[in-house]
Design goal:
Layout lengths: L2 H14 L2 E2 L6 E8 L2 E3 L9 E3 L2 E8 L3 E7 L3 E9 L2 E7 L4 E7 L2 H4 L2 E2 L2 E4 L1 E4 L3 E7 L5 E9 L7 E3 L2 H7 L4 H6 L11
Parallel strand pairs: 9-11
Antiparallel strand pairs: 1-2, 2-5, 3-4, 5-14, 6-13, 6-15, 7-12, 7-14, 8-9, 8-13, 10-11
Length: about 190
């Protein structure tokens, strides 16, 4: 990371209490909001109570990437805060399609990069798999991620390479790049 970016990233770590993410090698996070519990449909959730909403700061550094993941039965909202823009890849199970976004600030990063629209927020639906990488590999990117119903590691799923390739064979190369060699202890 460039010295100027490293200094700014360290300031964010101190201000927002960012800690290494347990499942994303290059990620840092801090949960800054967890809403009150609510009753939920027990046919969807094993637990009958879940937080309405959670929000975290999440930062990627250096050559970081977010591997394909989803939070079962929850919608995620990504919002750009600072640093490098991110190339975000979404694989949609219902439409059997791929959509690419650039998560960034259009006034800083331009209105498009490589013919992909730059936007400062993205919505990821429960039936979509999401992955991302830094545009500027020598920087960092800070964003917020809001999840509703609230995030719970019991519902966080890192994609299995074989399963995702079977669902989306036309995106095999992308899936190879953004799935872990071994899925670490999450339900599939």
């Amino acid at each position: 990371m460039r010295p100027k970016d490293k200094t700014l990233f360290q300031q964010y770590c101190e201000k927002y209490h960012l800690q290494p993410h347990p499942e994303q090698e290059y990620g840092y996070f801090y949960e800054n909001f967890r809403d009150a519990p609510m009753n939920v449909d027990s046919t969807i959730y094993k637990e009958e109570v879940a937080s309405r909403t959670t929000s975290v700061y999440f930062a990627l550094t250096d050559d970081g990437k977010i591997e394909f993941n989803q939070v079962k039965d929850s919608t995620k909202y990504y919002q750009y805060c600072d640093g490098s823009a991110q190339h975000v890849y979404i694989l949609d199970e219902k439409k059997n399609s791929r959509t690419d976004y650039i998560l960034g600030n259009p006034s800083l990063h331009g209105w498009s990069i490589n013919n992909i629209v730059v936007t400062n927020q993205i919505v990821i639906l429960p039936h979509q798999w999401v992955a991302a990488e830094l545009i500027d590999k020598e920087s960092f990117s800070l964003m917020t991620c809001t999840v509703s119903p609230g995030f719970d590691f019991k519902r966080f799923i890192l994609a299995d390479k074989e399963m995702l390739t079977n669902k989306f064979p036309e995106y095999q190369e992308l899936i190879q790049q953004f799935t872990p060699a071994v899925v670490k202890g999450f339900a599939m």
